[in-house]
Amino acid sequence: MPRRLLILDTELEMGGKEKLLYEFIARADRDRFRIAVCCLRPGGYFKEKIVSMGVPFYDNLLHHRFDALAFRELESVIRAERIQIVETFAHPNTVIFSFMAKLRSLVERVVVSFHALGVDARGSVVRPYLRPLLRRMDGHIAVAEIQKRHLVEVEGLREETVRVIYNGVDTAVFRPASAAERSAARRALGLSDDAVVLMAVGSLKPIKGVDDLLRAAASVMHARARVRLVLIGEGPDRVSLETQARALGIADRVSFLGLRDDVDGLLRAADALVLASRTEALPTVILEAMATGLPVVATHVGGVPEMVEPDRSGLLVPPNDIASLERAIARVCDDASLRRDLGQRGHAIVEARFRVESMCENRMRFFEELMAHSPREVTTSR
Description:
Layout: E1 3-9, H1 16-27, E2 33-39, H2 47-51, E3 57-58, H3 70-81, E4 85-89, H4 92-103, E5 109-113, H5 131-134, E6 139-142, H6 145-153, E7 162-164, H7 179-189, E8 196-201, H8 210-223, E9 227-232, H9 238-247, E10 254-258, H10 263-267, E11 272-275, H11 284-291, E12 296-299, H12 304-307, E13 314-317, H13 322-334, H14 336-353, H15 356-372
Parallel strand pairs: 1-2, 1-4, 2-3, 4-5, 5-6, 6-7, 8-9, 8-11, 9-10, 11-12, 12-13
Helix pairs in contact: 1-15, 8-13, 11-14
């Protein structure tokens, strides 16, 4: 008899966490789990894709920010789908509603997953009033060892309830490009075969450090005519970043592509991925780039060092250090053999440790262990 799992989120717009959820929903063994999805707001980008798989999808439960009546609708969903276990995320409403469902014995287990490591002025990733609720949940998923340490040491979660499950990437989709694929991807972007193409993928917001990337890239570009920068993503900083690119004199060599769902194909046009984030947990785009055989230049934040081996599969620099970022970018731009060696090692690391199949199996196994034992009996090994 399959376990009945509800994934409860606010919405499922395009993003790294949401892509991973979609992969899990698509790949979960239907003999082991029957999955339903519930979003408090309109479902977003992934709704149609998930519904097309025959997965029950409920959304738009929350009609305003403090809509307590939304819990009644959630209760109806839980009863209709005979849910046993809920997986949710560290959003106030979803945590509170999940806790209420647990308190009323509507479900047997609740798991809270953490995908971000951004902290506030107090060094916390969660709001103080949520901590007592989180501590009473049955299990917690962290995506990196450093995130687990933070959840235990700062947020006060019990170590035995926190399981590290690394993100995974589909290596059949994200794979090294042939010469013909590389040329075709570049032609589609108006890039020449002899250009050195840097690519960054992520939201255009302050935490992603794209302003630092533009400053570092500008110095490299002014000294190297063949270097181009492609930015994939959307966000509140787009207009200011486009203005910055013009002020730096590189607007004609920087492409803002906006939100795209063909990142696998776009990465085939690149020579290197650059991530300048000021904080991260375990950014999936790094795994996608490594799987594609690209070298990575990234800031030494969050779980990035758990993926990238410095000077073996990528170059790591301190966050907010534009000079160091510039030097690392210049290094990969100037040395094709370095790019090749870093990319090959990165690809091997993904194949060995970060396949999407392993991520999905580890998630299912954790849920099964929680259902089979009391939470204190569940081990924390990956």
